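Lecture 7, part 2: worked example. A protein chain together with guanosine-5'-diphosphate.
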Amino acid sequence: MPATIIIGGQWGDEGKGKITDALAERAHMVVRPNGSTNAGHTVVTDQGVFKFHLVPSGVLHPGCDCVIGAGVAVDPVQLLNEIDALRERGVDLSRLFLSDRANVILPYHPALDRAEEERRATHSIGTTLRGNGPAYSDKVGRKGIRVADLLDEAALRDRLELVVPEKRLLLAGFEDDATLDVAALAEQYIALGERLAPLVVQAEILVQDALAAGKRVIVESAQATMLDVDYGTYPYVTSSMPTAAGACQGAGIGPTQVDTVIAVYKAYTTRVGGGPFPTELHDETGQMLRDRGNEYGTTTGRPRRTGWFDAVAGSYAARLNGVTEVAVTKLDVLDTLPEIRICVGYRLDGKAIEAPPAVASVYGRVEPVYEVLPGWQADTSCATSVDDLPPNARRYLERIEELLGVPVTMIGVGPDRQQILHRPTGAAV
Ligand code: GDP
Ligand code: IMO
Ligand code: MG
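Predicted complex, written out as structure tokens:
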């Protein structure tokens, strides 16, 4: 049975966790293919709020295997903390697996992240400071340390001897040497490796065996297309590939093994950190979206920047990822607005342009062209089917569907896992 990929269609925090949890009810496996603890995926159940950073959002479903794939950068301390906290809440983690090929975030990675952001000063990216960028730089620079290395003391020492002197140079003047002692690091990370060892597997084989056995596999990407290192608002991006193609790579599956790509979009737009955001609102409406949408980062608690739905960036993401279905979350956040804008075009220096430009400073000058739609000014949070939605809410969704060119099959009307409307492909909104 082919796999389903879930990706973010905007700048992150679209509700991928909630959509993954909803679909995982009928899945055998959820694989997290990319990112690190920079991600925060929320699932709200009658047991309370769960914020997942590395553990796949399918873990609340008994019988669903959860795999942290080779493309993830894993901070062992944070992973073990996350596991302990979930265990304390009674979550069964006996079906959690970790790829032996995943790269490891060591203490010098967050230190380098902080130093790099400080050095960039006014041009800082606004990273989550979790060491994500430096860890992926080491990975592609072929000096990363991988989970398998934590299980072999001699190999780990060798790797550390090679990379730590370089980190010392890079961090001179920024940090003391506490994070840069080879013997201390080796001792600490071998101990962490021992704790992680029961989870460690050749994850790509586990995933391939599941697919070969006809099991339902979901790949839950972190971040989002507009944060992709190639296609996002470079350099204001993350350091991995949060596209459907990147999800294949990180999970260890081929494009021919996928038949469904679900892109999750908020009914408006948010982003955290720096970088262009053409539809950003700096007014009361923007603050209203932040308040009603509780737009504060799941990982860092930072206020998220807010703005109108951007169908230009949205359809760019839909095309790049070969999206087959769209989930629109947080429709309820728009319930009070008398009218709602959608960005349907970009203008640059007075001329229409079709897609996000490559250069961030140019993208920063783009002017959005808006279409104004009537609001519905009614509570959608109690809707249990698409038929319960006010006509203007359906019209709004239909317009998003038209602009993205992909059917909307799921609609979020509140944070709770129950507050999701399913719509068969082809049915009227
Ligand atoms: P992710 O990173 O894509 O998984 O998204 P986050 O969990 O970081 O952010 C999404 C936030 O919106 C979380 O606080 C969710 O609980 C919340 N959320 C998800 N879907 C809905 C929805 O349909 N309505 C409302 N009001 N909140 C939602
Ligand atoms: P989820 O999976 C929103 C953003 C950071 C920053 C940029 C680079 O929860 O949607 P990094 O720490 O990755 O080097 O930061 O990327 N960012 C996210 N924004 N949601 C995320 O993940 C993000 N992960 C990274 O805010 O702008
Ligand atoms: Mg998030």
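The pocket of guanosine-5'-diphosphate (ligand 1) is lined by residues 8, 12-18, 40-42, 44, 294, 298, 329-330, 332-333, 412-415, 419 (CB under 6 Å). The CA atoms of residues 31 and 67 lie 5 Å apart. Keep this in mind for problem set question 3.
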